[in-house]
Automatic annotation (TrEMBL), chains A, B:
UniProt signal peptide: none
Protein name per Swiss-Prot or TrEMBL: Competence damage-inducible protein A
InterPro entries: CinA (IPR050101), MoaB/Mog-like_dom_sf (IPR036425), MoaB/Mog_dom (IPR001453)
SMART domains referenced in this protein's UniProt entry, alphabetically: MoCF_biosynth
Entry-linked Pfam families: MoCF_biosynth
Length: 250, 250
């Protein structure tokens, strides 16, 4: 199953905010059984938000967005989403109750957070006011989250079980090769990918400590039996550890 | 002038690595005078890399990518870039000399880093081995960087002056409003955006400290005269500070 992550917000494009929501969501989707095939980052702009949702839904089964659900003038994610799929925005009692649990007085800006696209389901936001949104359009699932990281985390916890692919186990382990150089390891990694690449993914991450280069080698794979996947990944890591020693380090 | 940032790498999509390159590049482009209109994140996949470059060049004047310039099998950014614009890959003497400055022996994987797309210019990488790439195709400028953050920083330093838009000054200041609530500030922000929105951009960032919510209000603008822009932004911040006091905090 394929997933696309959308991040909405000028502050991300301007580099004012580091996009930790993206990695938090990416990790959850990967461990839940999805192949995250693209990330799209757009500004607080109605047409661009609508365009991102349309593009994502044309290539993925699951689309998760974060940002733009708040009370201010530039929070327009739900409007953009509705524009993309020609949906009406409706006052939703469940959503409004979720908002009212958090605030004492209802202003127009707060009422806005209780207006959601038709047929969508509000998801409780235990860490903030604006509910998350779950919607299924012709078999494509959309999860729409606010931009505050702790709220993303809280809402993802609520929906994780709903999107999890059954009997899927993803394992990602790594080994630190001190004194190794990425370019000298490359032939070994290429050889192992030829042998195990139909199932495993091996990637080298070059590092530097006090001017001394070293390499972290990551091996990941997935399967239905957790022990079997774990053993498979461990076996490849053992080969790397043994064979890397023989590589001609400069 | 419009810019698009492309990030290449499975580790970003899987959430294994937080995309700090994106914010580092976004900040430099914003302060250099560009409007970053989109971010595209793709895996280590030839067609998807080519697609990202094509998409970016159809909407932006400047395209900056990071990731996939190294020596391993899955470093294929230059191949994807060449595929997108039908360019030949050529051995480039300057690029090869830059690589040879860093390594003692030349393996096939290292030679790969001296092969670059036709008509492109290698940019010195003072923090690593793979040179960055600068290429102008029909007036669109492409800057292609490795994925290691310190190398991104080093190469961007080399090209910053070349891409900087003359007489452009971007100012971004903020004020912390303790005891404020984003939804209650919203009408004031909307009012100010009506008055100053043709030039200024105002955004609220809700925060939480020990369970106590507060709001950071960001004001940014740009212009040719640095003092004038600074004064303009300060004036709006002063209004916010004064008027926010009057907002009916719950």
């Amino acid at each position: 199953m394929k997933a696309v992550i959308i991040t909405i917000g000028n502050e991300i494009l301007k580099g004012r905010t580091v996009n930790t929501n993206f990695s938090d969501i990416g990790k959850i989707l990967t461990y839940s059984g999805y192949d995250v095939i693209k990330g799209i980052i757009v500004p607080d702009n109605l047409e661009q938000i609508a365009g991102a949702f349309k593009e994502a839904s044309s290539i993925a089964d699951l689309i998760v967005s974060s940002g733009g659900l708040g009370p201010t003038y530039d929070d327009m994610t739900l409007k953009g989403f509705s524009l993309a799929f020609n949906l009406k925005m409706e006052r939703n009692d469940n959503a409004m109750n979720m908002v009212l649990k958090k605030v004492h007085t209802l202003t127009p800006e707060r009422e806005k957070m209780g207006m959601i696209p038709e047929n969508s389901i509000p998801i409780e936001n235990k860490a903030g006011t604006a509910p998350g949104i779950y919607e299924n359009i012709s078999g494509k699932v959309f999860i729409i989250l606010p931009g505050v990281p702790r709220e993303v985390e809280a809402i993802m916890k609520e929906v994780e079980q709903r999107i999890r692919i059954k009997d899927f186990h993803y394992v990602d382990r790594s080994i630190d090769l001190h004194d190794a150089k990425e370019s000298l390891l490359a032939p070994l990694i290429a050889k192992l990918m030829k042998e195990y690449g139909d199932r495993a993914y091996i990637k080298t991450h070059p590092k530097l400590d006090n001017g001394k280069p070293w390499v972290e080698v990551e091996v990941s794979a997935s399967g239905t039996d957790p022990d079997e996947v774990e053993n498979f990944v461990s076996r490849i890591l053992e080969i790397i550890e043994k064979e890397a020693d023989k590589s001609n380090y400069e």
